[in-house]
Amino acid sequence: MTKTPLHILQRLWRDTGFALVLLVILLVVNLILNPTRFQPSAWGSLIGLAAPLIGAAVASAPVILGGRGGIDISVGPLMGFVNAIVIQLLFLKAGISSPFVIIPAALLIGAAIGAINGALTTLVRIQPIVATLGTYLVLTGVTLTILPAPIGPAPAWLKALAGPWSALPLIALFAAWWTIRRLPYYDQLMAIGSDDRAAYTAGVNVTRVRFIAYVITGVFAAIAGLMLTALIGSADPNIGQAYTLISIAAVALGGVSLAGGRGGLVGASIGAIDIFLLQSVLTAFNVSTYVLQIAYGAILVVAVILTAVQERAARGREV
Amino acid sequence: MSDTASLHARDLVIRRGASPITEKIRSGEIVGLAGLDGHGQERFLETLAGLQKPIAGSVSLERCGSERRITDFRKAVAARIAYLPRDRRATGIFPTQSVLDNFAISTVSEDARFGFIRAGHRARRYEVYRDRLSIAAPRPDAPITTLSGGNQQKVLLARALALQPDVLLLNDPTRGVDVATRHVLYDVFRGLAADGMALAVLSSEIEEILLLCHRVLVFRDHDIVANLKGSAMTTDAVIAAMFGRAA
Hints:
The structure holds 2 protein chains of 2 kinds. Chain A is mostly helical.
């Protein structure tokens, strides 16, 4: 159980596979094409720009790790919902600007929506994709009701979280996950993702573990919603939805098995950074956004195939 | 494991129309469950484990004069009844997880201090069972799928034993396991019984039951048709009971 750097690198390779290679390639290409954008003085806003996508990908991961078709497609609209509530209701209407109110309120909303998703999928036993599609539509509608058109501004401290302090929310997110990874809960989550019947016979409370995964996803999505609010410095009812699909792409790219039980949040965020860097490369070439979509799709399929090939090769050695 | 516990089945009906079963599996005893496939021995074992609801009757654990009803699987685990499933690939191992994680999943909170898992503590806990069951696993952090079937089964047994059970219910524990490993497992089971554990072993092999068990319950049509022990425990007698012929 020695943890040499080589060991950690091996483990990272096993968990993220192709995404890590892609990350290095894209980083080099970006540095060559656009050195000014990637110099240290610009890191603050660069990270702020990538943060909502990383946040959305990280938020999507826990329920996917929990297996049995676990997925939360309401992550994007939840980010938009948090964005609308924070700016429109709390900041503009109620005049509250204190982070000590806004942040807990956002986290609470995330936890509540996560709990609803969790209850629908684990207690009512609706298929996760259908249940969260319901939440997706409801949240989109409610957001548009609260906020029919974009409005601004955002509190100054919040905007700073997309500028000089942009690493802070990401650090908070990873600190939270780092803590969860050290709890008995994490082992149980990975076990139910790997095989929930076996987990049941091993005495794991499958329903409870899965329910909590949805709450974690909700809370993480709320943090991603705050990052999004910081980035756009305003409220926009139509911006959240787009994050759902791209974050699932990032998760898959990052080597997280959509069947559950394999991968991690580091992989998911590497996948998200890949997509962000790809975006950055293609924009440097002045490629249209339509081509951007094609590139996402192609890269995603290729990455998933390569991960599967790598996995099969690994399994071939084992048997 | 020092306090003696025994598992009681009272007027247990495991299928509509079958006659009630009253049995007691005592501390220090290895009871074999035999029968043709699907004649109720598996359902009986699962009912004892709380995984199946009986049609009528009850299962309870008696320890130091006090009794606990076992109505579901969680209660059974809490009463320190451990169950080792039959189909290791479908309901036993976690293929994506390491040997160590597979071992610890039933007892994760034991490794925690102030809520946090201590990796070192878990590794030490595993070492105890690795020695005892002579598990051949070069690296505990490798995926469990890298182990042979017999060693996977030993890891699952270690998982069950880590619960420090008073009663161990084994559903065909040596299925697909090589002969050498079988004998290791037999010795382990005998040792556990000698330490005061109550064991029930379902097996599809009569020789195994005769070799290992103190007595055997033979099932036919969801009834116990024979309860053989001592010199009455012979292959012929078990087969005769299985097929419903007079011995």
